[in-house]
Amino acid sequence: MADVFEVDRYDAAGRLGELEVPRAGVTVETPALLPVINPHLQTVTPAQLESEFGAEILITNSYVLYGSDDLRDPVEQQGLHDLLDFSGAIVTDSGSFQLAEYGEIDVTTEEILEFQHRIGSDIGTPVDIPTPPDASREQAESELATTQDRLATAAEVDTGDMLVNAPVQGSTYPGLREEAGAHAAESGLDVFPVGAVVPMMNEYRYADLVDIVAAAKRGLPESAPVHLFGAGHPMMFALAVALGCDLFDSAAYAIYARDDRYMTVRTTEHLEDLEYFPCSCPVCTSHTPAELKAMDGEERERLLAEHNLHVSYGELRTIKQAIRRGSLMELVEARARSHPAMLDGYRALLDHTAQLERTDPVSKDTFFHLSGESAQRPEVLRHRRRLDRLEPRGDSILLTEGNDADGFDECWSVRPPFGPFPRALADGYPLTAQVPERLDTPAYEAAAAGVRRLVEAHPDTAFTLAHDDWPTSALADVPERVELWNLKSDE
Ligand code: GUN
Ligand code: ZN
């Protein structure tokens, strides 16, 4: 594997990075969007993507070009960059998607990679087998074995300084996805797309999607650039970035536009249902929905595609700024509130908190507690683990949400959702968190788990917990030997 990817900054497992694409002579800032270009049907041209949207990278299908009577010769002679009129990085897919859709394609990995190299692709793709979700274990294993053979073949083909994708398959089996990730990393190839997730996204199975991406990431080294193949809806970009996906390709911007569908970061709307545009992009500020509805089909499609791209690029900028600031989890949480399936995706993400915690920075912008789910964030887990290394001074300790009291060797603070901590740490991240006054039960329960962790680590120390009327479910988690004071009922 060439050393082409560098991470600049993390937030959870999300990262700002740079992907060096030597053949294009460019470095692509990640997370990045790769608009899918259909060489026969360009609603928005690559030149326009570059000049108006700042696109640094795009993806097109080499199999379509390979099988095209009118484009195969021109692309072989002119090269892909010239044919498409794009100076950034060009990724080529192999026809695997057609294989999954139509069952058969007539090209081998060797042929298509040599073709991709010949036409000047910057990142090529072998013919992997996209095993659909819920395939039998036997099918998933045998197709994965075929994909793995093709990665080995791809590593043998002389592709010069073209980078090569090593897709990670394995259907809905996390164990296979993890193994596939580890195998792909050993193939010597360069970029790691997680494949066959389109059917999952079409069915809004975000929780399953999270589980398989998390599994693939466990198999891959931390430094591997990861592409989420076929993920083109901006509503799930923040979630996927938080898991550690770096590249997204979008055919959705164009497909949706063709069907008069209008993307937002929360939903997909039908143009006919809109009386107002909730967006400030050039399309939406210079037209009303009524004007678009009255246009001829081709112009309407182009404008909708432009809007869909503006929303998608805008969301990626929002995500990059959130990583800079350290507020990516707050953004994921906000996006999770737009659809029940996204909430399932966020909850599934939090099942992998320990995995996210490994790269989460020790200090960020103020932690905002925004919901019960916030209590499961990596920062809370990390604080709870840190309690094992904090030594109470003395034999009797007060843990309190209020003021110091006499009669104890030491007084510590308690703050939901983190739990107890020595007063001296109060000004450090994440204990400077902003929490709502009307706190949710999971925040108290998380704090109680912190109390339990501390108390169990110090069996010979006496603890008193002075709390602001915690719910019974939280108090039930505090070890019985802890003396309880309710500060509210004592007022
Ligand atoms: N496009 C969307 N999904 C896939 C996939 O699994 N493999 C390839 N090669 N392309 C895709
Ligand atoms: Zn718009």
Helix content: 40-55%
- Give the strand line-up of the largest sheet: 6-5-4-11-10-9
Give the low-confidence spans: none
Strand elements, count: 18
- Give average pLDDT, whole number: 96
Number of helices: 21
Shape: elongated
Bound molecules: guanine, zinc ion
Instruction: Tell me the span between the first and last alpha carbons.
Output: 65 Å
Please describe the biggest sheet, giving its number of strands, its sense, and whether it closes into a barrel: 6 strands, parallel
Gyration radius, rounded: 26 Å
GO molecular function: pentosyltransferase activity; zinc ion binding
Active site: 93
Pathway: tRNA modification; archaeosine-tRNA biosynthesis
Function: Exchanges the guanine residue with 7-cyano-7-deazaguanine (preQ0) at position 15 in the dihydrouridine loop (D-loop) of archaeal tRNAs.
How would you describe this structure to a colleague?
The structure is a single chain. With 491 residues, the protein is an alpha/beta fold. It has a six-stranded parallel beta sheet with strand order 6-5-4-11-10-9. Helix 1 links the parallel strand 4 and strand 5. The longest helix has 29 residues. The radius of gyration is 26 Å and the shape is elongated. The protein binds guanine and zinc ion. The site of zinc ion has 7 residues, from helix 13 and helix 15.
